[in-house]
Design a protein that fits this description.
InterPro entries: GAF, GAF-like_dom_sf, HATPase_C_sf, HATPase_dom, His_kinase_dom, HisK_dim/P_dom, HisK_dim/P_sf, Phyto_chromo_attachment. The termini are far apart. The chain is of the alpha+beta class and about 900 residues long. The strands form seven sheets. It has an eight-stranded antiparallel sheet with strand order 3-2-1-8-7-4-5-6. Helices cover about 45% and strands about 20% of the residues.
């Protein structure tokens, strides 16, 4: 065992001086490279060795020399060279990390000494001498190959992980004192602190850089009335060090006339023209014409987002992803190897895809000698000379930072695209309002002062009853009055966790707001959850002058330090008798002595917030009650409409049935006696003819009477008159039958009905309106009846539907002909077919189409509204089609719809199930 050199007073003073200098130099900078460079130089000066270096571990266990200080050229340089993970065995790493063991190796004596900072059994801090034992021969050969005869290693720990090693090498054998080990221990402890500070600085810079990047992209995206998608896409490619990108969006997906919005999946159907593509940089090559001209139309994306609808897809290597086998050919002509595929969603609605491409790269790693992993340290390497490990066409990995940045950028793109769509829609609506605004400008100018006064009162009412306004006003006023750094509102949830409400956070302009809590941040305090609000439920206000003097647990302090909170006041907000939340006032720039008046002021403000919340709740309840009353009134109006029309149709049905009944008796009498009259007339004429044959020379009186009554004409015309009377009576009987069929008073219940009979009876009643008139041509009626079965329905009500629809068609054709200078050939086509409402419910479809003038969309959309009519006063109540809709849809579970186009006519579609039992 080698002797340990004792430090005398001069050496101790020299070490203290050097240590102070090293510590000062470490603390002078937060830049890691400056820190480690200064450290290696000072440590080598302190120890007087040939080489001091700092070795940093990689995530895979290998490591790299990141700093080195050399004395002349006694040893070869290892700066920037990598060492494999097997060079430092796992048990050695465990000793370095768990017990902070310092290692000393003397090659000449072939001994290794270890000095743990912590006890190997209990883990407690100790100050133990170096304990020597024989060193592994492989380790000795390892150091000899490097030209090293004396080695000292101290572990560098950061965030409870082995970050690296501080290594001292000497080409000659030397004695290592306990004082030198203690000095190295102090230096690595300072290095750990400096690394943590530098890491925080790096994180802050990265965060600031990311936020600046996101802000720049957001500025490009949110520049209404235009949206700079192409520059934003180019900035996104640059942010990810990519070589290309694609932004595939739905285009013209919103139909402002029909208020219909197509999904992005519908827009991606091949042949659709509602997809807009923005590209930047290198793109995949689709060489031959195909039904999928866009890679976004391939099934691989749709299948992926059926199972992972909200996730980004980070594809590190296209050619190692089986799901992309169909897409690999379009990327083979390029060097694109990695894809970051990002769905753009806004409130669960897919707006498009953003794809970012990266090239394959060639990598080169500098190793300290060629390493054979199969040897597993059985034999040391023969040389530590530079060995270049070059690899071609390697995929670039997407990091967690890349994915988080992509999520933030995706939010900006989705929000901007959605806002732009809404902006375009609002612009379209505004164009329709401009004329109305222009007409009312003069009126508004005359009443400006009165309007301003009214608006002022309304604004004050809204400020006092709107929750958002309450929070915004309160936080802003409190922050200004007591000059706090930040004021926020915190709300409890059902399990006594909570979150900061909305973006209602006021901050002092004198404080750099780098740790803003932000929108809806969940901050659950386990103590408050266990005690259901703790002291605050008893209406106590907590004022903390300095968080470090309150005895908080380390976990609580870590949470406060995350947001740089140094002092705070929390005042409870009660909603009635229940604890609702907290008014939180924070000081970040340092501790603060809260004055009793300030604490009392915050308590009173919190109490007023509770009262304001109750008032806002009362307003909400009142509004809800008003909405219920409005709905009730609407229901009453609908009921009244139904009662009016039901009574009207009932009266009409009774009248029609009565008239049909009264006409039926005399008509049947006439019809029954016409045959006898015809026989009598024929007998009389036969008898007259016999008389003429028997007495060919009548008297003068008979001849005069025969001439007066025109006996020859009467004999020929009387049979014709009786035949005409027979036809007329038959016509009257048909009309009576149609009236009875239309009224259906004896068929009020649901039963199987021949729909064709109902249509024909309705047409019989309306026959007079189909005929030609002197002033206009007749209306051509075309029946295209299909082979349909009997339909279970309310026959009278369905006849009412046919009457309303056909009457509207006739009105439209008559009005159109009256407005034309020439005769307009009116035409009505009635067709019936068997259809299918759902997969298992068969139906009958009745389509009634005319070639009238049609109607504009705003009229078509309202034709089924109660009391809505375009007819002059006295010609229509606006109830017919409304009642028809309810009969078909509500009573029969069917479909009642209308399609119309100006100048091309109108078509009504009536569809009801064949069997109502299936519908119910």
């Amino acid at each position: 065992m080698l002797p340990i050199a004792e430090s005398n007073s001069h050496v101790s003073l020299n070490q203290e001086s050097v240590l102070r200098r090293i510590t000062a130099r470490i603390r002078q900078s937060l830049e890691l490279e400056d820190i480690i460079t200064a450290t290696t130089a000072e440590v080598r000066s302190l120890l007087g060795t040939d080489r001091v270096m700092i070795y940093k571990f990689h995530a895979d266990g290998s490591g790299r020399v990141i700093a080195e200080s050399m004395y002349e050229n006694c040893l070869p340089s290892l700066l920037k060279l990598n060492f494999p993970a097997d060079d430092i065995p796992p048990h050695a790493r465990e000793l370095f990390l768990k017990y902070k063991v310092r290692s000393v190796v003397n090659v000449d004596t072939q001994e290794i000494g270890q000095s743990p900072v912590r006890n190997l059994e209990t883990g407690e801090l100790i100050a133990e001498e170096i304990r020597y034992r024989p060193v592994d021969p492989c380790h000795v050969e390892y150091l000899r190959t490097m030209g090293v005869k004396s080695s000292v290693i101290a572990p560098i720990v950061h965030e409870d992980a082995l970050w690296g090693l501080l290594v001292s090498h000497h080409s000659q054998s030397r004695v290592v004192s306990a004082g030198e080990l203690e000095a190295m221990q102090m230096i690595v402890e300072q290095l750990g602190i400096a690394i943590a500070q530098s890491h925080l600085l790096t994180q802050a810079r990265a965060k600031a850089q990311r936020e600046a990047l996101i802000n720049r992209i957001a500025t490009l995206l949110h520049s209404l009335p235009t949206i700079a998608l192409q520059p934003a896409l180019e900035a996104t490619v640059a942010a990810f060090a990519g070589v290309g990108a694609r932004l595939c969006l739905r285009n013209r997906a919103i139909d402002l006339q029909n208020s219909h919005s197509q999904s992005f999946g519908e827009c991606l159907i091949p042949g659709s023209n509602c997809v807009q593509l923005y590209t930047c940089g290198q793109q995949p090559v689709i060489s031959e014409p195909t039904i999928y001209p866009l890679i976004e139309q391939y099934n691989v994306w749709q299948e992926r987002y059926k199972t992972h609808p909200h996730e980004l897809w980070a594809i590190n290597d296209i050619y190692q992803t089986p799901a992309l086998r169909t897409l690999q050919p379009v990327f083979q002509p390029t060097k694109i190897r990695s894809i970051l595929f990002i769905p753009l969603e806004y409130r669960q609605q897919l707006l498009g895809y953003l794809s970012i491409f990266r090239h394959e790269v060639d990598t080169e790693t500098l190793w300290a000698g060629q390493f054979d992993p199969n040897q597993k340290q059985t034999f040391p390497r023969m040389s530590f000379n530079l060995w270049r490990d070059s690899k071609k066409a390697q995929a670039q990995q997407w990091t967690n930072e890349d994915i988080e940045l992509a999520k933030e950028i995706a939010k900006q793109f989705a929000s901007a695209i959605q806002q732009h769509e809404l902006y375009q829609q609002v612009q379209a609506f505004n164009e329709n309002l401009e004329k109305q605004i222009h007409r009312r400008t003069v009126e508004l100018q005359n009443t400006t002062k009165q309007q301003q006064a009214v608006f002022g009162v309304i604004t004050k009412i809204r400020e006092s009853l709107d929750t958002n306004t309450i929070f915004q006003t309160t936080t802003k006023e409190v922050c200004q009055l007591i000059k706090a750094d930040r004021v926020s509102v915190y709300r409890f949830d059902t399990d006594w966790g909570g979150e900061f409400v909305g973006d209602f956070e006021a901050a002092s302009p004198h404080w750099l707001n780098e740790s803003k809590i932000g929108v809806n941040l969940v901050w659950n305090d386990t103590y408050l959850q266990k005690t259901e609000g703790g002291r605050y439920r008893y209406n106590e206000t907590l004022a903390v002058d300095d968080v470090y003097r309150m005895g908080f647990t380390q976990c609580h302090l870590d949470n406060l330090e995350q947001y740089q909170i140094r002092a705070f006041v929390l005042a409870p907000i009660f909603f009635g008798q229940k604890l609702w939340g907290l008014l939180a006032t924070y000081q970040h720039t340092g501790s603060r002595q809260w004055q009793p008046s300030e604490v009392n002021f915050l308590t009173q403000i919190a109490a007023q917030l509770g009262v304001a919340l109750q008032q806002a709740e009362l307003l909400t309840q009142t509004q809800q009650q008003a909405e219920k009353l409005t709905q009730t009134l609407h229901n009453l109006q609908q009921t009244q409409t139904q009662l009016i029309q039901t009574e009207k149709m009932s009266s009409l049905g009774q009248l029609v049935a009565g008239v049909a009944h009264e006409i039926n008796n005399p008509v049947n009498f006439i019809y029954g006696n016409l045959s006898h009259v015809r026989e009598y007339a024929e007998d009389l004429l036969t008898m007259l003819e016999l008389y003429q044959q028997e007495f060919p020379t009548p008297s003068e009186e008979i001849l005069e009477e025969a001439d007066r009554i025109d006996l020859e004409f009467l004999s020929k015309d009387l049979p014709k008159t009786l035949a005409s009377m027979q036809v007329g009576v038959e016509r009257i009987r048909q009309i009576v039958a149609s009236l009875r069929t239309f009224s259906r008073l004896d068929e009020a219940e649901m039963k199987d009905v021949n729909i064709h009979e109902g249509i024909d009876s309705t047409l019989m009643i309306l026959q007079h309106r189909l005929k030609a008139k002197p002033e206009m041509a007749g209306i051509k009626l075309i029946k295209e009846y299909g082979d349909i079965p009997l339909v279970e329905c309310y026959a009278g009500q369905m006849n009412q539907v046919f009457m309303n629809v056909l009457s509207n068609a006739l009105d439209a054709l008559e009005d159109d002909r009256e407005s034309q200078s020439k005769q307009h050939p009116g035409e009505i086509i009635i067709s019936t077919t068997v259809g299918q409402i759902t997969d298992r419910v068969k139906s009958v479809v009745i389509r009634i189409k005319d070639n009238g003038p049609g109607m504009p969309e705003e009229v078509r959309a309202r034709i089924c509204d109660p009391f809505f009519t375009t007819k002059p006063v006295g010609k229509g109540t606006g109830l017919g089609l409304s009642i028809s809709y309810k009969i078909v849809v509500d009573k029969h579970g069917g479909v009642f719809k209308c399609s119309s186009q100006l100048g091309s006519g109108t078509e009504f579609w009536i569809e009801i199930p064949i069997q109502q039992a299936l519908f119910s």
